[in-house]
Design goal:
By secondary structure, the protein is mainly alpha-helical. It contains six helices and no strands.
Length: 157
């Protein structure tokens, strides 16, 4: 929110006077960039779960393993956002085919919301597999590089 407000004020100072669609585009772009930067820490969860790292150590490990992996992180992030959106909106899209003449119970919107929450809860963990696979690939690559560098330092007999 602060980034968006700052960007809009900056554009206002440059006499751009953003409004409507421009504000929406700025909001989505800056929010997407913020999520992309935060996704550098997405490998911390697999580090905690798979390698039994502490939280702080997992954050640093995630940051190290994701250096230069911006396109992969962007693809995984987009997959997760789009998949979560589709899973959450699916009950509402399906219910839009119910004719307006059909009387619905007063609790029906609550049912849609519950199904939406369940859908996102079921859809997100499998989409998180991509981050776990990236972690496994990068940590294996990292350990191979570490073994190679230590074998070069070891005295040969």
């Amino acid at each position: 929110m602060l980034l968006v407000t700052g960007a809009i004020r900056l554009l206002d100072q440059w006499q751009a006077h953003p409004h409507g669609l421009m504000i929406i585009l700025i909001s989505y772009a800056l929010t997407g960039l913020a999520f992309l930067v935060l996704s550098r820490f997405a490998l911390a969860v697999p580090a905690v779960l798979l390698d039994d790292c502490g939280v702080g150590q997992a954050m640093f490990r995630s940051d190290k393993l994701t250096q230069g992996k911006w396109l992969i992180l962007a693809a995984l992030l987009a997959k997760s956002l789009v998949g979560g959106y589709v899973a959450g909106m699916w009950p509402f899209w399906v219910s839009s085919y119910i004719p307006a003449t059909v009387p619905l119970p007063t609790w029906f919107p609550w049912l849609l919301m519950a199904v939406s929450i369940i859908g996102v809860t079921v859809a997100e963990p499998p989409m998180f597999v991509g981050f776990a696979l990236l972690y496994l690939k990068m940590s294996a690559h990292d350990s191979i590089a570490a073994k190679a560098s230590t074998s070069q330092l070891a005295p040969h007999s």
